């Protein structure tokens, strides 16, 4: 298929790999071309297969996900990397960012957010699990990044409601369940909201939602 995104998955849990493959291949433009259960095997297969995006579990036997990423970067391999982790650990997150990752997903929401994360990665953008992003924004409390324009009155009531739920740190799946809509419909709403507000990236949307929470 033209413009097909070739994905490689490395995780030591078979159930996790199967769940991710199923979610990824629901998207007709994405194909999982290989899997590995440990870091050493992943590194060898990534070198051979040259995928567009690599999904790496941070905690794997033989060589962890960060180790795989370091080896790839040492060789000048700039393959897009999306990390998976069980814990919202800020030190691990910073290490992943230093390695130039494009995504950082918590495993409990990975099957719901993986497609959005992969899409962001191939577009050269960053994607972070909603729950982790909320924690980082609140704990670090950086100076607000200027956004284009004030709160837009062009947003629909549903979009305003989704923004409010984003500000509460809820994932697309949780928002979908609360609003009785499919999580991918929520992702589409996120894209439309960003377009209307003139902002880019999952973090920017969360930051905007938090800064404007009182107006939602």
Verbal overview:
This protein is an alpha/beta fold and 216 residues long. The protein folds into 2 domains: 5-128, 3-Layer(aba) Sandwich (Rossmann fold), CATH 3.40.50; 135-215, Orthogonal Bundle (Arc Repressor Mutant, subunit A), CATH 1.10.10. It has helices at 14-25, 39-49, 65-74, 90-98, 110-122, 130-140, 157-167, 172-179, 183-197, 202-211; strands at 5-10, 30-36, 53-57, 80-85, 103-106, 127-128. It has a 6-stranded parallel sheet, sandwiched between helices. Helix 3 links the parallel strand 3 (53-57) and strand 4. Helix 1 packs across helix 5 and helix 7 crosses helix 10. The longest helix has 15 residues, at 183-197. The chain is globular and about 50 Å long. The relative contact order is 0.11.
List the main descriptive attributes of the protein structure presented here.
Arc Repressor Mutant, subunit A; single chain; 6 strands; 10 helices; Rossmann fold; 216 residues
CATH topology tier name of the largest domain? Rossmann fold
As a whole number of angstroms, the C-alpha radius of gyration is 17 Å
For the termini, the CA-CA separation is 42 Å
Mean pLDDT: 84
Approximately what portion of the residues adopt beta-strand conformation? 5-15%
Low-confidence stretches: 141-150
Label the CATH architecture of the largest domain.
Answer: 3-Layer(aba) Sandwich
Structural category is alpha/beta
Q: How are the strands of the biggest sheet laid out side by side?
A: 2-1-3-4-5-6
Helix-strand pattern: EHEHEHEHEHEHHHHH
CATH class of the largest domain: Alpha Beta
Number of domains: 2
Main sheet characteristics: 6 strands, parallel
DSSP strand count: 6
* Overall morphology: globular
- Write the CATH homologous superfamily of the largest domain: Response regulator
């Amino acid at each position: 298929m033209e413009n097909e995104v070739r994905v490689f998955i490395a995780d030591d849990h078979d159930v996790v790999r199967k769940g991710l493959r199923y979610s990824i291949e629901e998207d007709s433009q994405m194909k999982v071309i290989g899997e590995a259960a440990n870091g050493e095997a992943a590194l060898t297969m990534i070198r051979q297969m040259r995928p567009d995006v690599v999904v790496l579990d941070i905690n794997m036997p033989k060589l962890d996900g960060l180790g795989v990423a370091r080896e790839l970067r040492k060789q000048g391999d700039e393959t897009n990397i999306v990390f998976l982790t069980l814990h919202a650990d800020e030190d691990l997150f910073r290490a992943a960012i230093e390695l130039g990752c494009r995504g950082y997903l918590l495993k409990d929401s990975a099957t719901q957010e993986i497609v959005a994360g992969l899409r962001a990665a191939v577009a050269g953008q960053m994607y972070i699990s909603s729950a982790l992003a909320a924690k980082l924004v609140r704990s670090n409390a950086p100076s607000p990044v200027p956004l284009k324009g004030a709160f837009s009155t062009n947003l629909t009531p549903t979009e305003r409601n989704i923004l409010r739920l984003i500000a509460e740190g809820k994932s697309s799946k949780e928002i979908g369940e609360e609003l009785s809509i499919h999580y991918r419909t929520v992702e589409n709403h996120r894209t439309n909201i960003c377009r209307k507000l003139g902002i880019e990236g999952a973090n920017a949307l969360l930051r905007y939602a938090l800064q404007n929470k009182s107006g939602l």
